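Friendly challenge for the regulars: who can give me the structure tokens for this chain first? No prize, just bragging rights.
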Amino acid sequence: MPPKMAQLGVIDHLPRLIAGEWRGVALALLVAAASAWLGARRRWRALVLAACGLGVLAGWAAVLGLAERRLLPLALAALGVALLGAARPPGRGAKGHRQGSDRWVLALFGLLACCAGWWLAGAPRSAGGIITAWKAEAVTLGLVAALGVPLLGADRWRVAACAAGLASAFGAIGGTGHAPVLAFVLAAAALGARELARSEVGLLPASAGIGLLAASAILANGRLLHGHAAPVQAVVLAPLATQWFASRFLPRLRRAGGAAPALASLAALLLTTLLGFSAAALGGLR
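First reply, four minutes later:
Bragging rights claimed.
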């Protein structure tokens, strides 16, 4: 194809790209950034802590539509958990506040994970139904805990890198529908919440959303519940690998000063993406 024709093709696709499902990523970034900025300017702590959750909710709603009944209620629940965190005033003393904060955040995280497990299992309303759906509930609880808990207290760069790593894993295996874009929404919402720093509660919607999105895709595939393997199950390795690589790169980049967390997270994301696409190619998925 001639260069001019190729350029025209790209230009023709730009409006579709901007107006399509990817607008949810831009919307998540804008909503989170605007909420965090306004909350910090007006000293509204609740709005600052809700910035990431508002970004996730707005982005997922733009991608999936307001009528979606599987993931949007979970995004709303994550936003509610962040607001519950805002209802707890900071404790006195750094040590006591840190220990109390850990217990409080873990309690909220556990509440969200239990609600998500019940919801993704089909929201059974009887004791027998809850027992019957124990596999789906266990998968959701396990993934939300394994992928989200290590990110509690992490900076927004690492949370965003883990979400983008999940998106790259979905893209590597293919056939996962909106999942890559939804994962990028999580990354955009985390990046947009600049005023949160290392807020465990404020970034919880994105941290927990990584596990929720992975669990939703794996349960939708259905093979794990019957004891069979599927490529989609391997996506959980991407956020874990990104987190592990970032923790190893960060000490080696201390000389970069304030840019060290961002550089470590970016390097970890690039390495995870390279490994993921290489593994998918070797496995015949691409």
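Residues 18-83+103-282 form one domain. The chain has a mean pLDDT of 84. Your move, everyone else.
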